[in-house]
Amino acid sequence: MEFGRNTGSPLWRQIRDDIAGQIRSGQVAPGERLPTEFSFAEQYSVNRHTVRQAIADLVEMNLVRVEQGRGTFAREPMLDYPLSDSTRFSDIALAKNCCPAGILLDHGDEQADRRIADALTVPLGAPVIRVELAGEVDGHRVFVSTAYFPQDRCQGIVSHFQQSGSVTKALAAVGIVEYKRKTTRVQARLPTPTDARVLKQERYRPVLVTESINVDAEGSPVEFGITRFASDWIAITVET
What pLDDT, in 10s, does the model give residues 4-52? Predict the structure, then answer.
């Protein structure tokens, strides 16, 4: 495909607009993998750097996403993630006719540092259970989370999570049937190398970070969670 080199518009922008038009028209389906940079360079008779500029802009326009080691894909619709006192990842995904999955990445017993102790209202150095997990929707990795639970109330929660893939079901199995969100703090930052690898995204793409405290029916904290959402997949909304 030939593009005008004397049109006053940079070649990378012309390529971007052509690919964007294909995505918006449905010629390229949501989730479809795009050709490689090399293939695009041959198709448009340009160098790969020009193609890379076009793809970078399409990422910023939220029309494509880049997965490390897999390629570039046309964007699927984002999942609205409403924050409320009853926020449940599985319920949100199922309500959108999506298939959620929880994956245990790591776990261990630790002593609460000041931050964890304050969140869980336990003494400094008190034993807590750390659980590292990932959440998927329809096979796409959408978040990675670090959760801390008071050890005296949550013995066995790791094995229960392994069986169910659900924090809600794991808490219920250790006797905490009712709980709600007390506080949520939201910020954006770049992912760590580990988070980027787990989320299968480029390091220059930001993550949305929530720090949350869940409490039982009596108001006692049962979970302190730090969740990193892939901003390509999740749109956080606040219910009022």
Answer: 666 668 899 999 999 999 999 989 988 899 999 999 999 998 999 999 9
CATH number belonging to the domain at 79-238, selected among 3.40.920.10, 3.40.1410.10, 3.30.420.40, 3.30.70.240: 3.40.1410.10
CB atoms within 10 A of CB 32: 13
114/121 Cα distance (integer angstroms): 10
Helix axes 37-44, 11-25, angle to 10 degrees: 110
CATH of segment(s) 11-74 = 1.10.10.10
pTM more than 0.90: no
What are the residue boundaries of the structural domains of the chain, listed by start? 11-74, 79-238
Residue 188 near residue 206 (C-beta atoms within 8 A): yes
Terminal alpha carbon distance of the chain: 51
Can you tell me the distance from the alpha carbon of 24 to that of 143, in angstroms, rounded to the nearest whole number?
Answer: 27
Q: Going by C-beta distance under 8 Å and a sequence separation of 6 or more, which residues neighbour residue 126?
A: 111, 112, 117, 120, 150, 151
Which amino acid appears at position 58 of this protein?
A: L
